[in-house]
Design brief:
This protein has 177 residues and is of the alpha/beta class. It has one domain: 3-Layer(aba) Sandwich (Glutaredoxin). Helices cover 36% and strands 20% of the residues. It contains five helices and seven strands. It has helices at 2-20, 80-95, 110-120, 133-138, 166-176; strands at 49-51, 62-65, 69-75, 100-105, 126-128, 146-151, 154-159. The strands form two sheets. The protein has a five-stranded mixed beta sheet. It has a two-stranded parallel ribbon with strand order 1-2. Strand 3 (69-75), helix 2 and strand 4 (100-105) form a beta-alpha-beta unit. The termini are far apart.
């Protein structure tokens, strides 16, 4: 009985801490994806991705050079906070041409990821990460959305939270550069 109460208390503390940190979204592994679709099949045409990450581009090609600072937003098609945040990230990208701003779709179903961006009217170039390789290399927490700031390819900051506006994201990025 004492062990059950203790375990329950630990779970409550961990969940409360995650909510307090702003990581309101689902854990990355909470939602099984549908049958993965190859990036080049059944995919709407999407913007090309700068050569910033070693991943395939979601519906586009990897073309062009990345800038010194790259802001990477990791998201998934099934994530409600991601759905709310993606338009703000897209606006941030349009208003901050001095940075390479890209997304990383962290789910095996590339077609659903591209469809979500189309549905939201988001032109953000995004990479497809079927295996969680980017999160593993960067040592990211298992939540989405999460935003990573890279300078010269090296991690400068990780924000495991939802940004509600382009201005809020701009303040966070400026604060770490």
């Amino acid at each position: 009985m004492k062990r059950t109460v203790w375990l329950s208390a630990v779970v409550i503390v961990v969940v409360t801490a995650l909510v307090a940190l702003g990581a309101r979204s689902l854990l990355v592994d909470d939602q099984p994806s549908e049958e993965p679709v190859a990036v080049d099949k059944h995919m709407p045409e999407r913007p090309d991705c700068p050569a910033a990450l070693d991943l395939p581009c979601l519906g586009g090609e990897v073309a062009g050079q990345a800038k010194d600072v790259t802001v990477v937003n990791v998201w998934a098609w099934w994530c409600q906070p991601c759905r709310a945040e993606l338009p703000a990230v897209d606006e941030f990208a349009r208003t901050h041409p001095e940075y390479s701003v890209v997304g990383v779709h962290a789910d095996g179903n590339a077609a659903n990821g591209a469809a979500l961006l189309e549905d939201l009217g988001v032109g953000l170039p995004s990479y497809q990460d079927d295996s969680g390789a980017f999160a593993a290399v960067q040592g990211l927490p298992p939540v989405v959305p999460v935003t990573v700031v890279l300078r010269g390819g090296q991690q400068v900051a990780v924000f495991a939270r939802e940004f509600t506006s382009a201005a809020e994201l701009a303040d966070a990025v400026a604060g770490v550069l």
